[in-house]
Design a protein that fits this description.
Length: 386
């Protein structure tokens, strides 16, 4: 997406949409309206409070419909990091008294992986499932790790660094057949509004969602909690969100979230096809650049493309591209660009891992922007010493 960046006084090409997206006009308008007109506290009993609550309810219904859920199963949070924390901590508190094992993949977002590590220190057994030698995950490996002592299986839908699509449906359905009492949680952040997602078809009891990855605004997320599943709150002090998440709801952010969902939900299939074409175009353009390798799987999400400028440090390449007005990532933004170990799990190491760069696109990205990126990358490969 080519944008005029007045801060820097030049046109820029933004290819870091897995980190955050530009809020769409509908989301901005909804947020502004809730800040300037519909600014009541949704917990207040007067008309201004009721109007604010109606705005929250409208967004809740939109998000619920988008994943085939009932609106009573959607709870707003400050973002997917909080949703993931609530899933792991809330389920372990509710079901972990007798069942002390949690199974996750080895490539989860830090908000799952680090939370699991914290639970491990408190006495839970954490089993991390790695990909096999072919770089792929298999449902059988997760199922083999489960037993009567397992309270939770958590798996992301789309890996945020490589775009790898995890076998969530196959795993969760098989887990439920063998161990119906195990709770299943899916971090759907990088798949939501990009892939068709339905809670029932995934077999997920809990789903984490984020607004700012789908052209909403930062500071709000949601968690789907299937009816009948117990979750112990991690934030207390009020009765908001039925006591699951205390604190006054941010109506502007929530309204913007709902507006973004309403805008993009009807075009998931069309946008996926468009982004797939863009990915193919990009791979063709960089295919002839010496020492550039593609790390993302061919059948991964087209929205995330991880490549390596082999022999060049990713941070140096990132800043070289930035000097050309092109913004990409050298890793997960949530980890401040540091290598998370995810690439190593997929068998990518050494200079190839050191030179990894993530390009993440949207349906608004153009072929011309990707051409400029490819030209700048080729120039960087010749000019950067290492």
């Amino acid at each position: 997406m080519l944008v005029r960046n007045e801060r820097y006084g030049k046109m820029s090409i933004y290819l870091d949409n897995a980190a955050t997206t530009k809020p769409c006009g509908e989301a901005v308008s909804a947020a502004v309206d809730a800040m300037t007109e519909n600014y009541g506290n949704p917990s207040s009993l007067h008309r201004a409070g009721l109007d604010a609550q109606l705005a929250v309810d409208k967004a809740r219904k939109a998000i619920a419909a988008s994943i085939g859920a009932d609106s009573s199963e959607i709870y707003f949070t400050s973002g997917a990091t909080e949703s993931n924390n609530l899933a792991l901590r809330g389920i372990s508190a509710a079901y972990g008294r007798k069942r002390r094992k949690i199974v996750i993949s080895s490539v989860e977002h830090a908000s799952v992986d680090e939370t699991a590590s914290a639970l491990e220190k408190s006495g839970f057994e954490i089993v991390r499932i790695s990909p096999r030698d072919d770089g792929r995950f298999y449902a059988d490996d997760f199922i083999s790790a489960c037993d009567e002592n397992t309270c939770l299986v958590s798996m992301m839908l789309v890996n945020n660094e490589t775009g790898y699509i995890m076998p969530v449906r196959e795993t969760f359905m098989a887990v439920k057949r063998s161990f119906p009492e195990i709770i299943t949680h899916c971090d759907c952040v990088q798949g939501y509004m990009k892939l068709p997602i339905k809670a029932a078809s995934l077999g997920a009891d809990l789903i984490s969602l984020s607004a700012h990855k789908i052209h909403g605004v930062k500071g709000v997320g949601a968690i789907y909690i299937k009816k009948g599943v117990r979750v112990i709150p991690i934030v207390t002090g009020g009765k908001q969100e039925k006591g699951i998440r205390s604190g006054t709801e941010s109506v502007p952010l929530i309204a913007a979230f709902g507006a973004a969902v309403d805008k993009f939900r009807p075009t998931i299939a069309e946008r996926y096809e468009r982004v797939s074409q863009l990915k193919a175009h990009l791979l063709e353009k960089i295919g002839g650049i010496e020492n550039v390798a593609v790390n993302s799987p061919s059948d991964g999400s087209p929205y995330v493309i991880n490549i390596s400028a082999v022999g060049k440090r990713s941070e140096i390449m990132l800043h070289f591209l930035e000097s050309k007005g092109i913004y990409v990532s050298s890793g997960s933004a949530c980890s401040k660009g540091q290598q998370s170990g995810v690439l190593g799990e997929f068998g990518i190491s050494g200079k190839r891992a050191d030179g990894a760069v993530r390009i993440s696109i949207t349906a608004q990205t153009t072929e011309e922007e990707l051409d400029e990126f490819a030209e700048a990358l080729a120039e960087g490969m010749t000019k950067i010493r290492g």
